[in-house]
Structure formats: C-alpha cells, structure tokens
Amino acid sequence: MNFRNQISVKIAVLVFAFSSSYAQNPLIRNQFTADPSARVFGDKVYVFPSHDILATEDRGRLDWFCMEDYHVFSSENLTDWTDHGTIVQQNKVDWVKPDSYSMWAPDCIERNGKYYFYFPSTVKDSFTDIKGFTIGVAIADKPEGPYTTEPMPIKNVKGIDPNVFIDKDGQAYLYWSQGNIFGAKLKDNMLELDSEVMTLGELPTKGLKEGPYVFERNGIYYLTYPHVENKTERLEYAISDNPLGPFKVAGVIMDESSTGCWTNHQSIINFKNQWYLFYHHNDYSPNFDKARSIRADSLSFNADGTIQKVIPTLRGIGVSKASKEIQIDRYSQISEKGAAIDFIDSTDTFKGWKTVFSNSNAWIKYNTVDFGKKRLKSVVIKTKSENGGTLEIRTDSMNGTLIATVTIPKLDNWKELKITLNKFKAYTQNLIIVSKDDSKTEVDWIKFE
Length: 449
Ligand code: FUB
Description:
Oligomer: single chain
Shape: elongated
Strand content: 35-45%
Number of domains: 2
Distance between the termini: 45 Å
CATH architecture of the largest domain: 5 Propeller
Largest sheet: 6 strands, mixed
CATH superfamily of the largest domain: Glycosyl hydrolase domain, family 43
Radius of gyration: 24 Å
Bound molecules: beta-L-arabinofuranose
Structural class: mainly beta
C-alpha cells in the first residue's frame, strides 16, 4: 500500500471509529444492535451490545440471528453515543467456528484496571468436549480496546448470555443460560470457574429463561432475566441475600413487547444517581425481530427495594440540545388522534422516522430540551405539506408559552424553513408541537438557532 492509500485508510478508520449518533430510542441509529450490556467505567457509560446483521444465502442462516462481531459504544451524557468500532470478530477468535455467525449477547467488566469482555459463540468442531455454544473472554487495557482474545473458551461452561458480577468482597461470579440460568464463582484471573456450576433453580420452571444480569443494591442481589411467561420474552427479576441464591421471584421489570418482538435482553446501571434499564426492540425492522436496536429508559425502586415496572418509551433518556436536530417523532406523549409516526423511507429504515400531522389540534410532546441561557432567535423545521399548514411550538403544555408559529406553504419535497421565535425560554423545557389545521403536514426534525 502506498503512503497516500495508507493515509486515506487511517482517515477512514478514524471517521468510522468516532462517528456519533444523537440518541433517543433507539440509541444507535446506523446499525442494528441488541442485548445491551451497559457499564459505568469512569465518567462514561459504555454499552457492549450484540451486532445483528441480516443473513444471506452465503452468510449465516436465513430468518435467524446472524452476528459476526461486536462493537462498543460510549457516552458521557446518554445523548451522544460514540461507536468505537469492532472489538472482537468471529473469524479472529481461535476457538470460534468462523461461519457460525453466533456472536450472541456479551458482557464486560473491569478488574484491577483490565477490561474482561465475555462473549458466547459456537465452538469449532472437536476443539473442546463441549458442543455448540460456549463462552470466551477477551482482555483489554481500556474499555474501547484493543482486545486480545483468549485462545480457549472458559472450561465447563455450556451456554449463552454471559454476565459477570463482582461482589463488594471482590469475589467475581459468572452467570449464563441454556434454558435455565447457571452461576459459578470465578477465580481472580477472571478466566476460570472456581466452584461447581449451580443451576439457579428457584426461577419459574415453565418457559425459556435466558440473559441473566446480576447487580446489588442495599444488600439485595437482583437476578434479572428475560422469561417467556406467555408468548414472548418479558423482563423479570428475582432477589436474594447471596449472589448465588437461593433467589425469590420478585416481579416483572418490563412487559412483553406490544408489537411481538420475541426477545428482550436487559442490563441495569446507576449513572450519576439515576438508575437506567437498557433493553432492545426491533425498531428499525418491524417485520423481522432478529434485527434489533438497543434502547434505554429510567428505572426506579420502591422503598422496599422492589423495582417499578418500566414502560418502554421512544423519548428514552438524556437531554436534547435545542441547537441540534430534535427528532420529535421520538416523542414523550402524542395526541390520540391526528398525529402519527412513520418511516421516512420504508425501504431504508435507518433514514429514521417522521411525524405526520393530519388534524387540527393534534399534538406531540417532546420532553427535556436544553435551551441554555444564551438567547436563541429562530427555529428551523424540516417539513413538507400537501396543502400547506400551520404548526405552533409551545413549551410545557397545549396552553403553555407560544414560542413560534410556523406557517408552511404547500411543499411536495422536504424543505428546511427558518422562523423567528416570538419568545425565548432559557434552560430545560418540554416542547409541544400543535397542528392548527386539518392538512397533512410532516416534520422530520426541528432545531433552534
Ligand atoms: O441475541 C441473540 C439472543 O437473543 C441472545 O443471546 C438472547 O439473550 C436473546 O436476546
């Protein structure tokens, strides 16, 4: 490769590695992601998800999960996520069957300044006495890598969905699943089991259980897991006063998906004194639920330590900056009639969504927008309209302060219109966009300048 080519490859890698997406739900906007394992390392949240891709005739198994690598993402503010690129690939791990496309749900944990990334995959034929799924480890000095994979998987582990928990006394535990949920102590080297494998058998006996994720709060050990109680997975939890149980089933964290996504998969973190649930849904692939996208919503505890059910939202978490494009289709609330969400281009769902207003007084509410304190003078709205229309932008409620009235001419194609603000309201505001006529008017995003 000549010098010029080397430079352009380096630039391409840099652009890719630091590409950001501006998130509500789903968090990642340019690729499928699933099974999020979120971790707080230093002052950032890192998410280690699975990476769904679509199978083809010569890649994976059609109509099934297809995963060949892992990326890691990080954020300081839960709004802007940085993709640090690929950290582990199936064809670069000694023990992984390279055409298995089975790099399922992973986890990562820090110990003594090293980052241990645990991932399941299908082991090469006659590589160990285990057939099918087992679990391996890759180690790095920084959460974003580079990771070096161990040549052999962890001995005596058969299954998927690894999760590692380190207790206050320094003892580490590995959990995984294969129909049931299993757990064992890990040695200090984080690479070998240090106890018998236990089946955590106090969980529901009927219906698949997988995806364990354990955390501790106020002396209570929470074992969270997706479980098929009815038709699809819902997120449940059990509690104990010991990391390996016995556990007592304690409740549901998130109900089954209302649109039928068969899997869900969770992790729970506390970041800057707020608890968050990370999970997934097939937002970008409504007709195929093996191509999923990670999401996050806030989570709260009752005084007795039980978990309040989390209702999935599109708005998700994080503060949106008024000066960046605000995707109001990731709404906090929407009127019952006259406002709907649709893909901008159903043949390329990663182009995202739009809001479609079709009735007078239809509205959409978008919470937690930071206007800062420096006066912003105008609003820019990317819109189109069949016959022309009027939208009001208010803060707080339908009767809140009217900050702009946007008169939109008939527009067959998307156009960015800029309108002077009537009023400026500083700091954090909730926005309400209200249609003032019955014409079909569409909005891609709005921002303030
Ligand atoms: O992503 C593949 C599998 O789907 C995961 O390992 C399970 O937890 C389920 O989410």
